[in-house]
Amino acid sequence: MPTYVRVSESDLFDFTRRVFVAAGMPPENAALVADNLTQGELHGLGSHGVSRLLPVYVKRVRVGAFNATPNVTVVQRKGSTAVVDGDNGPGAVVGTFAMDLALELAQEHSSGWVVARNSNHYGAAFLYTRKALPLGMIGFSTTAAVPQVAPYGGNAAALGTNPLCIAVPGGERGPIILDMATTVVARGKVQLAALEGKPIPLGWAVDAQGRPTTDPVEGSKGRMLPLGGYKGYGLAVMVEVFSSILSGAAFGRGIGELFADFDRGQGMGHFFGALDVSAFMPVDAFRRRIDDLIAYLKGMPLAEGAEEILVAGEPEARKAAEYRVTGIPIEQDVLATINGVAAELGVSPLQGM
Question: Which is it for strands 111-119 and 81-85: parallel, antiparallel or unpaired?
Fold first, then answer.
């Protein structure tokens, strides 16, 4: 059985930031990327956190596959829309720039829509969309990803897990944040299970021969399964349109592999949006209506075996609240790996609480 070490949010962020600075990122970019990965870990998403991504991010920076000091630019701006070129920067840097621009446009035009190209893996989508919430806006984001899914009826990977995220501001009951892959689960969950030596449930992935598997290593070599069959495939295509085609980014097999292709950037595209609620109704009234909607849903009779009804984003918010008290669990072998990366850069190791 795996054993875990608990680390605090602040210690994990500071450690990760120092590692990225030592790898060659300027402090402001290192802080953005470190916070992105720390927040993924804090919310129970190790697949989008330090555990899985720190070593490969460091390697890509050190060999130049990520541009640690990108000149992120707005190449086109028209009305409520804009196109951003990420200059092969880390996705967290490019994504933050683009989402902030979408919010700026929404403050001016009641909605803002930004595409970004020439970017890289950007972490968990909700980290961008939730920036809209304090402003009384609904946030949107999609991103293309490395091909892991066959088109419906096909037998070779053509599309990524292609997540989409919508964050809706709420009132006393909190926001609703839908952050979902268009596959049954995110690819990173299979890779994290492989790192931790855990089996995966049937239905997550198939092996290289297309056979159902519970082996995460074989699943990583094979393909992810789309959510709801042809419906998930259709959603993935639409995410590819918004993220890759509309932005002018690479698409499908043109996207560079995160864990390979160290001689080039990923050429990835993302999409960001912000919709000002006050253009439709007073924000306070909207927040109350979201509270009423959540209360309505939670007031439904429970299915057999269910303990309660949740809304999107609630499990992750609860996990973050728990981990802020108890510490974030990092599998001991994974901790040894990231501390090994730190040692190579002369950074002191991450210690448990």
Answer: parallel
Nearest to 100, CA basis, from 87, 118, 116: 116
Which among 8, 61, 6, 7 is positioned nearest to 33, based on CA atoms? 61
Residue 82, H or E segment: strand 81-85
Is the whole model's pTM more than 0.85, yes or no?
yes
| Best CA proximity match to 143, nearest among 127, 166, 157, 161 | 161
| Paired sense of beta strands 81-85 and 205-206, if any | unpaired
67 CA to centre of own chain: 19
Cα angle, residue 286 at apex, residues 40 and 129 outer, rounded to 5° = 20
Find the mean pLDDT for residues 84-95. Answer: 98
User: Would you place residue 335 in the very low, low, confident or very high pLDDT band (cuts 50, 70, 90)?
Assistant: very high
* Per-residue model confidence (pLDDT) at position 290: 98
Give whole-number Cα distances, 204 to 114, 141, 168, 308, in Å.
Answer: 32, 24, 28, 25
- Amino acid identity, position 163: P
219 dihedral zone (left: phi>0; alpha: psi -120 to 50; beta): alpha
Average pLDDT over residues 253-269: 97
Nearest to 285 by CA among 137, 170, 135, 168: 170
Q: 270-297: per-residue pLDDT in tens?
A: 999 999 999 999 999 999 999 999 999 9
